Amino acid sequence: MLLATDLDGTFLGGTEDERKNLYHFINKHTDIALVFVTGRGLHSVLSLFTGDLMLPVPECFICDVGATILNGDTHEPIEPIHSSIEAKWPGKQKILEKLKDVPGLIPQDVPQERRCSFFFDEDIDREKLEQTVQLLNCDLIMSADKFADVLPKHVNKGNTLKQYITLLNYPADEILVAGDTFNDLSLFETGYKAVAVGNSEPGLISATKNKPHVYHAKNEGAGGIFEALEHFGFIS
Ligand SMILES: [Mg+2]
After folding, report:
1. What is the pLDDT along the chain (236 residues), one digit of tens a residue?
2. Model pTM?
3. How far is the CA of 179 from the centre of ligand 1 (A)?
4. Ligand 1: distance of its center to the CA of 112 in Å?
5. Among 72, 31, 11, 21, CA closest to 195
6. What spacing in Å lies between the alpha carbon of 184 and ligand 1's midpoint?
7. What pLDDT is attached to residue 16?
8. Gyration radius (Cα) of the chain, Å
9. What gap in Å lies between CA 29 and CA 32, rounded to an integer?
10. Backbone φ and ψ of 41, nearest 5°
11. β-strands 193-198, 175-179 pairing
12. Could you tell me the distance, in angstroms and rounded to a whole number, from the CA of residue 192 to the centre of ligand 1?
């Protein structure tokens, strides 16, 4: 099977025992393919391994909410997916230049690839922001009343994962995706078996309820993933 999981609040969430239990299970079963799908950049993801010797190494990193896809061992971009994302990205400088006159928008000072994050406040001119992003032929994601993200068109966690699955020619019914917040929704829209772990964002829960392929776990984080592995029969 292939487990494609968000990190913060999902694979990294839950109790110490739940994490140990899940990581041990994955490390022991080498036939489980693991993919990390996160909003973090690569350096932030790699820093997790220095603090946790148990953390399993995935075969693929999908970082920057889908804008980066790298081989888990070599950290080389996975082609042709990487180039197709790169081709749609106008570049950070152009984004900053075009958006610098939008009131209420403040660039975030974080290392990112093919993605540009901002804070916004109550002065935000949403219409001007939306129009400018549209002219740049990019996608805009606004969340939590303070974050605005500019991404290449149609690039998100779910779409990048789907391209990877197609590249591998992996059987769709052998895949489980896991997440906990609204920026994981695109993973749940792939149609693969999915788990919203315990204590997921209400917006994600309401957007995924009554979908038969989505399991809403009781346990949080790693505990919720393990619960879903049992629920879907990946563990007998
Ligand atoms: Mg999360």
Report:
1. 999 999 999 999 999 999 999 999 999 999 999 999 999 999 999 999 997 779 999 999 999 999 999 999 999 999 999 999 999 999 999 999 999 999 999 999 988 889 999 999 999 999 999 999 999 999 998 877 889 999 999 999 999 999 999 999 999 999 999 999 988 999 999 999 999 999 999 999 999 999 999 999 999 999 999 999 999 999 97
2. 0.94
3. 6
4. 17
5. 11
6. 7
7. 96
8. 18
9. 6
10. -85, 170
11. parallel
12. 18
Tokens of 6: 């968000």
How far apart are alpha carbons 88 and 221 in whole angstroms? 33
Q: Which residues contact 126 (CB under 8 A, 6 or more apart)?
A: 142
For helices 92-99 and 126-135, angle between their N-to-C axes, nearest 10 degrees: 140
Q: How far is the CA of 2 from the centre of ligand 1 (A)?
A: 19
Residue list, CB under 5 A from ion ligand 1? 6, 8-9, 180-181
Instruction: Calculate how far, in angstroms, residue 10's C-alpha sits from the geometric centre of ligand 1.
Output: 6
Amino acid at 159: N
148 close to 129: Cβ distance less than 8 angstroms: yes
**101 C-alpha to ligand 1 centroid (Å):** 32
Distance 181 CA to ligand 1 centre (A): 5
- Residue ranges and CATH numbers for the domains of the chain are 2-85+155-231 (3.40.50.1000), 90-152 (3.90.1070.10)
C-alpha of residue 6 to centroid of ligand 1, in Å = 6
Contact 184/207 with Cβ under 8 angstroms? Answer: no
Type of residue at 171: P
Ligand 1 centre to CA of 147 (Å) is: 15
